[in-house]
Task: structure prediction
Amino acid sequence: QVQLVESGGGLVQAGGSLRLSCTASVRLFSINFMGWYRQPPEKERELVASITSGGTTYYADSVKGRFTISRDNAKNTVYLQMNSLKPEDTAVYYCRGYRPFDKSDYWGQGTQVTVSS
Result:
């Protein structure tokens, strides 16, 4: 069973920065798609950023230019660097790993990010 463990959430003032980490219990290169999702209070979960094993990245319009996703296969870890944080970035952030060839879908437990105004 693959496990994804997130860390790095917390409370930060608007304009500040946080870096989230997601460490997998397996070799990261075996997971084609890694993504960061978030779920604000009383709202649906949304994709924030993703990165493929080939390095292709995607960002939601709301975070472009502020967030950066990266992966370190040697450490089996995916990062989300979040800069210029806004109160509307407040949410529980989840890490997801997906392997299309067997449709394996893994989620972390979530980490809370709170941005105060």
Remarks:
- The chain has a mean pLDDT of 96.
